[in-house]
Amino acid sequence: MKHLFTTLLVALCFMVQSSHANTRISPDFLKLKYGFFVHYVWAGGGLTLDREGKAPASFDALADAFDAKGFANDMEAWGVEYVIFTAWHANINPLFPSETMKKWGMPEHACKRDVLRDVIDACKAKGIPVVLYTHPRDGHDLRGEDRVRTGWGANPGKHPGDPHWDEFDYEKWNNFTHELYAELVDRYGKDIIGLFLDEGSSAGDSHRVVNYPRLRETIKSRAPHLVLQQNYYGTIYACDVGVKEYHHWQQFENRDGGAWPAWDLPVASVFATTWWAAKPATQNTVVYSAEDMFRYTVLQAGTNTLGGGMQWAAGPYPGGGWEPGVSETMAKFASYLKPVASTIKGTLASTAFPTQKGAALKNIGWGVRAVDWGVATDSPDRSTTYLHILNPHEGRRLLIGMPANGARFSKATLMPSGKAVKLELTPAGYMITLPDDENWNPVHTAIRLDRP
């Protein structure tokens, strides 16, 4: 009965908080449009595999093999705005010398190297901020006495990921979780921009395990600026924003990026084997084209009103490098992004030409009319609008339509060349005409619109 009462109380608290949580997203997060999501994981036997498809010999071996400088170099080369990197995942093995794990009788869950510090410092040197991924309800992956030590209970529950409710000690589990998060934020809070809290239950009922209001207080009391993300399965609990998560499933089962719907939430999607390196370096594991990935990132930038944009996901090998096809795909992606990065990175979804969530590049999704010519982004001060022409028509003329917010424009410029684009205001909206020596780029054309 006590557990039931506690569960109901916490459920009420998180519903009240989550009803207004997204109003607390920082302005800096709202401008992020392109992140890279990385899992590097020891699960008591390895999830991350090496180039031969084998697990490292130990947790310390995995930690010692991480190439932080090479990783940061890749993120810079791929034009990434921010990184989401694993603090701990399966079996709760934090990638730093955790005193909390030792205190709770699990010293083998603490590695000697401070991998997180090395990642944060290497990325910071490149001007790339870091979000740390965490898992607040991963007791089901613990083994033997570790389950009892933390309050999870010795026996598995009826459903995967759940504790055996008759054995679960809610208070003890949350004491453990509270201490681990407190240690994490005390160590790194001032040097990161947010935390990612894994949902862990597709039923969206993790409040039965995690005291989210308490967890939010633990984190925010130490680092109020941190944005808390949660993969979205119906609720964000006491976090700030949900994330649509894809792993070659639902709409992302389709290998044609023209069918992928965009969201107001951030979107995270695996594009190789999984979130971590899981295949030997013998065959290409990438399932989407660089062109589709880039074009969808642009579409998401123009739809994503809650910040975070697109988070493409893959994991590095111990010792550095990626599964076959990952580097090649991201290098090609970066070649499309670099010339027009200022029209995407650091922008807001446009209020002049807004795009509804559910829009896709070439079909109707979720009852929303398909994107006609593309999407638009705005500069943070809304003084400039960038048109992203993803579906050009015949000829060099294109009717964009009338701005939804009543904005007026005086100048149009082709990006990145700086060539003037003819801009006419007609009763049906703005008509743009490319210069005689220019044609629509088959991947993406960007045009800057300036107000008077």
What is the strand tally?
A: 16
The SSE string, one letter per element, is HHEHHEHHEHHEHEEEHEHEEEEEEEE
Q: Which structural class should the secondary elements be placed in? A: alpha/beta
Q: How is the CATH topology of the largest domain named?
A: TIM Barrel
CATH level 4 superfamily of the largest domain:
Glycosidases
Low-confidence stretches: 1-22, 364-369
Shape: elongated
Descriptive report:
Helix content is 25%, strand content 17%. With 452 residues, the chain is of the alpha/beta class. The protein folds into two domains: 2-343, TIM Barrel (Alpha-Beta Barrel); 348-450, Golgi alpha-mannosidase II (Immunoglobulin-like), CATH 2.60.40.1180. The strands form two sheets. An eight-stranded parallel β-barrel has the order 1-2-3-4-5-6-7-8. It has an eight-stranded antiparallel β-sheet with strand order 9-10-11-16-13-14-15-12. α4 runs parallel beside α6 (115-124) and α10 packs across α11. It is elongated, with a radius of gyration of 23 Å. The termini are far apart. The model is unreliable at 1-22 and 364-369 (pLDDT under 50).
Which labels suit this protein?
452 residues; 25% helix; TIM Barrel; 2 domains; eight-stranded antiparallel sheet; alpha/beta; 11 helices
